[in-house]
Amino acid sequence: MAGGHGGGDYKDLVVFLAAAGVVVPLFNRWKISPVLGFLAAGVLLGPDGLGRFAPVVPWLGWFTIDDADQLAQLSELGVAFLLFMIGLELSWERLKAMRKLVFGFGMMQVVLCAAVLAGAFMLLGQPLAGAAVLGMGLALSSTAVVLPVMAERGRMRGVVGRATFAGLLAQDLAVAPILITVTVLTTLSAAGGDLSPAVLGPALLTLAPAAIGLALIVLVGRLGLRPLFRSVAKSRTKSGGGSQELFVALCLLVVVGAGVAAQASGLSMSLGALIAGILLAETEYRREIEINIEPFKGLLLGVFFVGVGIGLDLDVVAAEPVLVFGLALGVIAIKAVLIFGLARAWGLSARAAIETALVLGPAGEFAFVIVNTSLVDGVATPAFTQAVLVAATISMFAVPLAAMLGQRLAKSAPTSPAPAVASGAEPDAKAASVLIVGFGRVGRLVAEMLAEHGQDFIAVDTDPSTVAAGRRDGHDVSYGDAARPEMLSLCGIGTIKALVVTMDAPTKVDEVVIAARALRDDLVVIARARDDRHAARLYGLGVTDAVPETTEASLQLAENTLVDLGVPMGLVLASIHERRDKYRAVFQAAIPEDRRHRKTRALRANPKP
């Protein structure tokens, strides 16, 4: 029994789930990052929180986590899922659009911060290998904390948001090289730090299995992942949209399988998951995979942060408060100063540079992954490393405060024109104007007409064969169910100008329209209708325009007949448009007054050129 409280082996897991269901929603209500909620829950429910009083008040033992090791494996899975999701975000288009900031400002920030922090740790008496590992670990910021905090404060759009995201993206790219470097340092440390060729050569050769394993993961992934997902997607199509569980199971298999394969090669599980995500980033299944993985990532990553909170040794804080808080403030200050200078050098204004520097100053979740790896392998000094990890945890709690302080300092900073080097940030990838749901015969024709008139679009379809054909022709088509709000959000429904639903299944058309209207009331929505009754129903659901197949076919036949009989084209077109307007008026007459004006509101929000 865990902790002797009669709760069995699952008592700690039940306590964690209770924390996820109670503590974290409270933090959400207070508009505080859920990550901080998990960290706080770990501190509260750990042996240094309520656990301290359990010997005096026995019933408190039911509400504490006695054995953090029970959550360790789930915690490792959480980090693997986070890295997998990061890999999915590392698409070529995104990197290309932000290449100057990512590979310039971002990478220089990682290298410079790691070097300066390593030098500071050497001055504090740490050996070279240990100082290097600590420096690399603390040079990274918290993607899981910074992005939600910035989004909550409405700072993701604009210069600061792009610069912050570019810095975090560069750090994510640096994780794999850092993990490999830690492996090399561990090997050299085991050899006594001897850098002679006689020792260095065999040490580097120990990485051969890792390199072979890495190459095999990449090879198998490139050859097998897309066909595997296509096979599962086809089974979903044949079963009428079912077999969702099979798709979820495949996503989990890819993450865990890649992680286990990496572990078998002597690498970390996180690195394998990152590579799997990168391999899938360019496929048509990326968005659907993100939706299926997100719930697991959130919960398992919560286990990781609870574990971090449990690891916040309050005894260390009480014994060495000056050292711990000094390390936390020192890390934030050193990184903030360096990032501010680099941001200015890369073209950010003083105001944007201040805000970016402060939010990227605190340490991140990968400090625990990297530093704990070195601690297990004996590279770092245990006592000092524990103080560093506690300081890193405290600095993560400071992210919301740093964001608020940065925003206030930015307002008081003098305005100055940004240098022309990067004009504050690299521009985002060009957003699509139209989202086409259904890329069959009708959807493809709509896409061709949009392209002919210079309108950018993206498309979504549930038929993997249709998606594959569209991508072969160079179109941005993704596999997924657009009736799910999560899919619409990933496709950028918040920024597109129009949604065109071309599917020939009336029920699915209705579902997509309902989901889209729930997310945006001002969006132009044009939907394909089966007949007049379906068109009337779509107007009731809030479409801007419904195009019934039977009516349009009849109008087209009448137009061709009249023209062939010699009636002037202008008169024919005028009468066709007049009849079409009459039909539309009939459809709209049956819907409530507030919905009848959706089209007017949508056109005002998206005026025609």
Could you outline the blueprint of secondary structure elements for this entry?
Elements: H1 11-29, H2 34-45, H3 72-89, H4 92-97, H5 99-123, H6 128-139, H7 143-152, H8 159-190, H9 197-205, H10 208-238, H11 244-264, H12 269-281, H13 286-310, H14 314-319, H15 321-345, H16 350-360, H17 366-376, H18 382-397, H19 399-412, E1 434-437, H20 441-452, E2 457-461, H21 464-472, E3 477-479, H22 485-490, E4 498-501, H23 506-519, E5 524-529, H24 532-541, E6 545-548, H25 549-564, H26 569-589, H27 593-596, H28 598-605
Parallel strand pairs: 1-2, 1-4, 2-3, 4-5, 5-6
**Strands, count:** 6
Indicate the mean pLDDT: 80
| Percentage beta strand | under 5%
What is the terminal separation in angstroms? 70 Å
Percent helix: 55-70%
Structural class: mainly alpha
Main β-sheet: number of strands, strand sense, barrel status? 6 strands, parallel
Q: What is the general shape?
A: elongated
Describe this structure in words.
With 609 residues, the protein is mainly alpha-helical. The chain has helices at residues 11-29, 34-45, 72-89, 92-97, 99-123, 128-139, 143-152, 159-190, 197-205, 208-238, 244-264, 269-281, 286-310, 314-319, 321-345, 350-360, 366-376, 382-397, 399-412, 441-452, 464-472, 485-490, 506-519, 532-541, 549-564, 569-589, 593-596, 598-605; strands spanning 434-437, 457-461, 477-479, 498-501, 524-529, 545-548. A 6-stranded parallel β-sheet has the order 3-2-1-4-5-6, with helices on both faces. Helix 23 (506-519) links the parallel strand 4 (498-501) and strand 5 (524-529). Mean pLDDT is 80; it is low at 418-429 and 599-604.
